[in-house]
Structure formats: C-alpha cells, structure tokens
Amino acid sequence: MHDIAVLALVWTTVFFASYLAHKTRLTPVLWYLFCGALFVNIGFLPEVLPVFIVDFAELGIIIIMFALGFEENTANFLQGIKRSWGIAFFGAITPFAIGYCAANIYWGDANTSLFCGLAMMATAVSLTMVSLKSEGLNNTLAATGIMTSAVLDDIASLALVAILVPIATGEATVSIQGILLVLGKAVAFFALVTVMGGWLFPASQGITRKIPLLGKLNLRKVLAMAKGEYTVLSLLLIAVLVGLLAHEFGFHPAVGAYMAGLIIHREYFDFHKDEDKDYYQQAREIIDNVAFSWIGPVFFVALGSKLLFDLDTFLSVLPEALMLFVGLFIGQVLSAALAARYTGNFDWPASWMIGFGMLGRAELAFVVMDIAYVQHHIMSVEAFYTLMLVAFMLNLSVPLTIRWHKRHFKTV
After folding, report:
1. CA–CA gap between residue 27 and residue 231 (Å, rounded)
2. Range of the domain at 285
3. Residue 307, domain CATH
4. pLDDT for residue 342 is more than 90
5. What single string gives the DSSP state of each residue in 218-248?
6. What pLDDT was estimated at residue 115?
7. Cα distance between residue 17 and residue 21, in whole Å
8. What are the tens digits of pLDDT across the range 235-247?
9. Roughly what angle, to the nearest 10 degrees, separates helices 28-41 and 296-304?
10. Partner of 1 at 20 to 30 A CA spacing, among 72, 152, 171, 313?
C-alpha cells in the first residue's frame, strides 16, 4: 500500500474519531487512541506504519507542543518550575518503585524489573496538555504545574535511562563522568534556549545590538517578511529547529518545540501597524488548526495503533496488567497530588488535577520498551504486553479523569 494511501486511512480514522468525540462530548484524544487501537486490530490500518507516517506523527507532536508553548506565558512557566520540583520528584520515584516491585513479583528478573520501572516513570505531557486544551484548561496554573514538572521529569528520566540502560544491557557501568555528562547536556540545552529567547530573537534591541551582523537580527523582521505571508512558516521552522536541537541534547523534540513556543513573545508580531490585522492571533489560529485538527491527531492515532491484540497473550497478562494499572493509578495520582499540595502550595482542586494529568505514558515509555524488548531481548513478550496494556489504560485515564474533575475545578 502506498504511504499516501496509509495517510488517507489515518486521516479517515481522525475524522471518524472527531465525529465520535463531537457526538459523545468526550475529548477527541480519547477517541484518537481508541480508534487507532480498534482499526489496527480489525485490519483497517496496517500493523506496522510506514516510516513516512511515523515521521509525520512525530511532526504532529512537535507542532502540538509548539502551539501549547506559544499560548503559555513565559513568566508563569518559570514560576511554575520553582513550585514543581516536588511534583517531579515524587511523581517520578513512586511509579518507578511500583513498576519495579510489581515486575519483580511477576517475573523475578532484575533487568526486566529495572526496565519496567523506567518505562512507567515518565509522564506523557503531550497527551495531558491536549486533553487540558480540549477542556479549556490549558492556561491554568495546574496546567503549568503539569508541564513544568513533566519537563523536570523528562530530564530525570533521560538521565536514568542514559545511566541504567547500558548497565542492564551489560554495555557499561556507572560512572561519575556519565552522570555529569547527562546533567551537563540538560543544563546546556536550557541555557541555549534562554539565550535565544533573551538575546538572539530580539538581538537588534538588546545588549547584542553592538555585535557585528548579529546586532542586525530581529525575529520581528523575519516574521514581517512579505507583509506577514511567511509568518507561520517562520514559526514552524523555529519549532522544528529547536526540536532538533533538543534531540541532539537527548530530549524528545517535542520538549524543544514547547520551549521554542514559550520564548516567542507577542511583541514580535507588532509590525505593519497600519493594517487592520492581528498577525499574532492569525498565526495562533493557523498553528492551532494544524496542531489539533489534521497533523497533530496523527500522533495519537499512531500511538493507539501500537496496541496489537493477541487473544492468548492478552488473557494471560490481563490480571498482572490490571493490578499494575491500579497500583500505578493510585500511586501516581496520590504522589503527584500530595506533592503539588504540600511542596507546590497548589489548592486541592488544582493538586488533584495535577495528579490526574501525570497519569499518561507515551514517548519515553515506548522508547524504553523498544530497547528492552526489540533491541536487546531482555524483556519477555508477557512483560512487553503487560506494559503496553498498562500504558494504554493510563493514557485512556487522562482525558476521562480530567473531564470528570473539571466540574470540581475552578479555572480562575
């Protein structure tokens, strides 16, 4: 089947899921995941998606996270980091411990237990942020708390993966140099993003204006090219480039794209003032349409399609998957919510929303499973299916719990 034909099938799935979301008034993300899993198992979608679709889905999540960062206030985000250290710490160590202990009880293999713990510790922030946006909650303090703690989570998770995976596979041992390298790369990436937002983009207005060539740069001039015709292209190029930069430093490109959106300010769009047009609002509307209507949803359909149904294996691991799911659900919600309340000083409604928002598992979880099951054959097929089912159930829980809790949540 031609790759374009597969894209047509995926977009048909998106359209069908969006129709169901409209009829049921449930968040579209839930239906994207469900329809992706359903259609791959009935044969409507191929079991192995073409590289083109996989890359297209990757672009989708990059644009989604850029759109979310584009709407966020930088000051709120920086303030959120100060309040979110406890959420990130307790919200990561608890699911790691639960995943490790449960796997040790189920299969009794130290390396399998280690990978299960690693797979379950990192939050799928993209799923949560899209779910919050669909409920009109993406600009709340709780959403900022989830995003900032998830970024800190990603840093810790990447560090642990970089350190522990080579040990589990027998390729390396723990070294101070390795730990410092991972932490140094994290610091260097965020320092670079800070320099871009503080000095490079407004170069002709800041302290860098006296530097030859660099002092003539200004993002406003780029966005204003051809009366704003290339504004959206410029923004998407920035999102992709910073995403690639994040990838080079060991992060998921979506994290870089979010940071790129965060450092682009409204004042960069104050050009062609003689025209009766809001270029900032126009750009937001176009990017939101791309992110949440026709490219971004491909990511969630592709994510749902990873759950291939094998009846015998499914029935054999269902009890373990259900028990692990319940343990992770309770442990994740309680640890994140209590940390939000007592270390971040959020009120109880926001704390519970943060707890529910930290349930999702996606990018890093599947990377860890791929390393353990596909690349190194450390994890058994039963363990692999168990983690896949648990991740799928946790992902379904995110939009459902957020929608349920919305009635108790004040957006002001």
Report:
1. 30
2. 1-412
3. 1.20.1530.20
4. yes
5. -HHHHHTHHHHTTHHHHHHHHHHHHHHHHHH
6. 87
7. 6
8. 999 999 999 998 8
9. 50
10. 313
